[in-house]
Write a structure and sequence with these properties.
mainly alpha, 2 helices, elongated
Length: 46
């Protein structure tokens, strides 16, 4: 499920960047912010 979520975020970054008026590269922090807590909490909750 996490891979699907990361794929959805990755493919939507250009549109999100366009919407916010920033380059898509600057929006890549969104992937990092999302994946780090998921990597930390999924093993704990499992």
């Amino acid at each position: 499920m996490q891979l699907l979520d990361a794929t959805i975020i990755s493919t939507s970054l250009p549109q999100m960047g366009e919407s916010f008026g920033v380059p898509a590269v600057a929006m890549s922090i969104g992937i990092t912010v999302y994946m780090l807590p998921m990597a930390a909490f999924v093993p704990l909750l499992g």
